[in-house]
Amino acid sequence: MNETVPTHVILSDVTLRKMAREYPRTREQLARVSGMVEKKVNEFGAALLAEIGAHLQTNPRQLFAEDSFQTTAPVPGRARLRRYRSPRSPAFRAGWVGDDRRP
User: Fold this and answer.
1) What is the spatial distance between Cα 50 and Cα 36, in angstroms, rounded to a whole number?
2) Does 95 reside within a domain?
3) Is residue 49 assigned to a domain?
4) How far apart are CA 56 and CA 70, in angstroms?
5) Among residues of the chain, what percentage have pLDDT more than 70?
6) Does 38 reside within a domain?
7) Which of 18, 45, 47, 79 has the fewest CB atoms within 10 Å, measured from its CB?
8) For residues 10 and 15, what is the distance between their CA atoms, to the nearest angstrom?
9) Dihedral angle at the C-alpha atoms of 95, 98, 100, 103, nearest 10 degrees?
10) What is the pLDDT confidence band of residue 99, given thresholds at 50, 70 and 90?
C-alpha cells in the first residue's frame, strides 16, 4: 500500500473498525467486511491481510460483545429543560432548585 492517499479516503472508519473487530484472514472473509468491494479487495487485500496477520502474531485477538459496534447517537439539538429550570419560569424565580425541592 504505497499510496499517497490518506487511509480514510480509501477505507471508511466503519470499514476499518469492522476489520479490526473481525480479523479477516482470507480474501473471502475480507470481501464480507462492509465497504470492501471487489476492487478494494483486489487492490489492497493482500497488504491488509498481511498487516492483520502480522498484528495477530504479536498481539492477542480481542473479543467484543455482540452489540458493542452498534451505537445510538444522541438526537441533535438542545436538551429540553424542565419548565421550572427556565429563568423565565415562576418556579425558577421562586427559588426551586430543579429537583422538585424548594430551597
Assistant:
1) 16
2) no
3) yes
4) 24
5) 59
6) yes
7) 79
8) 10
9) -30
10) low
Evaluate if residue 75 carries a pLDDT over 60: no
Q: Is the pTM of this model over 0.85?
A: no
Give yes or no for residue 7 having a pLDDT over 90. no
- What's residue 80's pLDDT? 54
Reported as a pLDDT band with limits 50, 70 and 90, residue 57 is very high
Is there a domain that residue 42 lies in? yes
Structural domain tally of the chain? 1
Kindly report the CATH number assigned to the domain that includes residue 54: 1.10.150.80
Rounded distance between C-alpha atoms, residue 55 and residue 18, angstroms: 15
In the chain the first and final C-alpha atoms are separated, in Å, by: 65
- Which region holds residue 91: left if phi is over 0, alpha if psi is between -120 and 50, else beta? alpha
Domain that holds residue 46: 7-58
Contacts for 84 with CB less than 8 Å, ≥ 6 apart:
91, 92, 96, 98
